[in-house]
Every structure is written in structure tokens, then in C-alpha cells.
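Chapter summary example.
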Amino acid sequence: MRTIFFTTLFALTGIWMSSFAQLPPVFGSEYHGITQKDEMTRTYISPIRVMWTSDTTGELIKNTDVLLKMGDSQSSMSRQTQFCSIKSTEIDTSSILLDYGKEIHGSLQLVLGGSSRREPSLVRIRFGESVGEANSQTYNSDWLMGFSTDDHAKRDIIMEIPRTGLIEIGNTGFRFVRIDLLQANTLINLKEARAVLRYRDIPYLGSFKSSSSRLDSIWLTGAYTTHLNMQEYLWDGIKRDRLVWLGDFHPELATITKVFGYNEVVPKSLDLACEQYPLPNWMNGMTSYSFWYLIIQYEWYMQNADIAFLKKHRTYILGLIDQISSQINEDGTETMGKFRFLDWPSTPNKEGVEAGFRALLVWALKDAKKLSEILEDKESVTKCLTAIEKLNRNVMNHNNLKQAAALMAVAGILDPVKACNDVVAVDGAARFSTFYGLYMLDALSMAGMHEKALHIIDAYWGGMLDMGATTFWEDFNIDWMENSARLDELTPEGMNDIHGSFGAYCYPSYRHSLCHGWSSGVTAWLTENVLGIQIMEPGCKTLKIEPHLGSLKWVEGSFPTPLGVVKVKHTKLANGKIESQIDAPKGIKIL
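The structure predicted for these 591 residues follows.
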């Protein structure tokens, strides 16, 4: 099925490819090779503009408009065929920079139509999530400011290309591609330079439209960010962090359930995580990420009521509860290792991280208790309740860390109004983070501060859009915007490069991922709080619909459930009251 979303999102013409369900007959029944159908769809995207060339004379690089046309992946030796010619001299290496309009995951396909050499020609291909990255050098020995790396996915490749033919290069996340012809005194004829988008072709069952087009763009960008990371497994990043990270998984799960409903990538990825980190290991080697596993299992069950999958993970869930509860002491202290991770921006605030870590554990144990009740294991229910009681004997101070205060509110150990007035709402979007921004927004909604949350969303996630984002990033600080050029511009002298000039920890400079699934939680929040749709009974059999429009005049959208798609529209009347129209499938109770 072709997804209408990509037609509207890209506004580009592509060729949609289908794959065969079985091998051609020539393989025969006696063929014993292991085969597997590619789960992903491939779509070709022509660049929308030539951003820059190294040629200031108009003599070395000609007919660049050819590359913007629809291609057919077919080389040609006909004189009727138009080519973009790229020529180098003894002293000049010719280069061209292409923009594909949106961040994508995939590769580059070059179609060549002859050259001045009998042999293949040598080129350098650089992929970039930003203009700056596509023009940057690569340095893999260390994570240094000013350099990009390709330790997760190759983004800087020197290779030979055929004289007349086709070749595909790379597998990474990118929006821009720079091509350098390296050999002197060489001419190549380039017929096509199309990006190959590789993605799950699935419908966007959830939707969000309102009187604010900016808010609509934020919702859709968050949805698309997670969509790109739904590869064979649920990744956190399409350039870097192409792994199943259980903490990062949670905001993505929240987005998936609001946009796509059920998708096999979730149970498949949870299965893989348990295989890779069998007990007594912690998920991804981090205790806090095992806490997230329990929260994910509960929220996935509430969406789908898939008792068979929950029972499949019964041994792991109950074993993890045993492992956690056995390491909590009577006085509320615990012995679950020294490495306490929430998210990277919170790391310097050790006291705050400690408080947030313990709050996250309380949240996880509360969900683990519910899972134990569903699995009818009374002993585990008791273990969870006892563990929570012990932890609450030793509640720590949030130390003005927004991440910690938000988790404490969500976990029910700090009054949400106090948490927001004292910490979370202070200075608006300042000190927000892409991963934990979801829980900060949740704390604001629990405190009844929905309008404040919408202002922060406009400034924070909207700020990324203002900087040229088409997907949301691994990290963002609104202070970075000052005197910074957009990611889709060549950075003028005297200005910051919004991509290359910032970043820290494991993501300095261009190593920073500009498509990170953990940043998409804003999409889920908008569905839950502005559309007002919340799950009250497993399988979405009972939904509570309580919209919070703030200054919006109207909002409408849809929400996928196992019983079908729920559609709502809320309109603010002249007297300030909200009129709601709700269309729910049979079998769903609306509160």
C-alpha cells in the first residue's frame, strides 16, 4: 500500500518499487540457500536543488538541472540523452552539493553515461544531515569538535564508479550529498543522482490538525522522526545509534501507538532486547533502561491487550522484578550500580540524576505491579509494593533538575504543581531536553499547565524547525539558536553552524544525530493532551477524551486502536466552552 503521507511530505515524484514474495522459479525447490524478504520499501527521490558547485566559471560543471528531473535508473549512450557533465583539471577537483529536501534513511544511486576514461573514475561521496556535515572532514579516531564520524554508518566514502552504468552507495541518515571528482583531467557524465529512501510503507492512522499550522508541523515531524527509525528493528537514530535502546524506545513507543497503532517492530524489538540482554544483565548495560522495559511492556499492553505477547515475556518480567526488589534495602537505599543515566544533558547534576533515577524506578515498579496483576502473580505484586514502600522512605531532592522533578511528578512522589512551579516551568523551554521533554510536558499537563506546555512546544520543538529541521534531534538547546545559521544553509562567516558548532558527550559537532527517535514524544503528548485521547482500559476498550486547546480555536485528528480508528474534532465556542464531535468504532466506550 502506498502511503499518502510521503506524497504530501516530500511533494516529489518517485518510483514506488514492490518486492517479490518468493524467489523466481529458476531457484527451484532444491535450492537450500537462506533467503529473507526485505521488510522495507524503496523509493527514489531526485534532489530538489543544487546547493553549490565548486565551479565558478560555468565550464567545469554543466547542465546541473538534469539531476533534478525524474530518473529511470537506466544508463544511456544515446546522444539524445541529457547529462550533467562534471570535469576536473590538473589543479581543480570538481564538486557538487545536492539537497534532497527532507532527512531520509537510505542510500545514493548514481547513473552514469560515459566518461573520458576507459577505466572507472574515482569519486568521494559525503552524506550529511546538514550542509555543514556534507562539507565536513571525517575523523574516526576521536570525537572531536568540527569533525564528523562514520563509526555507526559510513557517511564519507571514496570509491570507483563505472564509466557507463549504475551504482548504489551508502546506508545512513542524510539530507545532503556532496560528490567530488577526485582524478585530474577527467570528465564524467552524470545522468541521475537519486536518493533511495528505505522505510516501512505503513499508513499514518493517527493524525493531528489544528488552527496552528506550526503545531501541525511539529506533530508530523515527530511522527516522521520515529517512522524513519522503524527499520528491521526500532532504532534510536538513522545515522548513529542504529540499535535498540530501551530507554530511547519509550518515547518512540508513545509515538508509534498514537500514529501507527500496532506495528510488529515493537514486539520484535522487545524480543531482541531480551535475547541480547538476558537476566541478570541490565538492558543495554544500564539499570535505568531495564526500568524502561517494564514501563514499555505495560503501555504496549494497554494499547493492544496482547496477553499472548505479555505471557511470552512473563519469565523475563517476573525475573526482572525479583532482580530489582532484591537490591533495595530496608532503609530505601539500593545497590543497582553506580552508573545512573537519565539523559545526557542531565549528567552533570549528580544529585538531581540520583533523585530522577529513583523516581523512574518507582514509576517502573508501579507499572510492574500492574503487569504482575495481569499475569496473576500475587508474589510479584507484593514484591513491587514492598519495593515502592522502601524507596519512598528515602525520597531525594531534585536539585532543580527538570528531568528529575518531572519524573518525580509522574511517579507520584512530588506534587505536579509544586514540581512545575519550582522547576519544570521555570524559564520556559530553557533546560528542556529532547528525550525527557516528553516527561516535562507530562508533568505540566498533570499540573494543569497545558497552555504553558504549548508555549514551550512552540519554542523548543518549533525552534528546531526554525533551524531547518525536518526530523527532531538527539539534543537541542534553545540557546544554540543565537547567531546560528540554519542547517540547510552554507554558514556565513561570523555565524555559528547549528549542527557543527554545538553538541557534547557522545555527540560533539557533526556526530550529533539530527534524527533521533527519543525526541518524538511531543507527537504523543499532543494526541493525549490537545486531542485529549487517553487509554483507560486495555485494548483501548475505554477511552477518556478531555481536550485542552489553550489558545487554539479548533483541533481535529484520529487515533488508532485495535478496534478501529477513533476520530475527534474539538471547536472552541464564543463562550470559551469546547464542542466535541467524536466518532468511535463499535466496542469502544468513551468517557
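To summarize the output: The longest strand covers residues 94-115.
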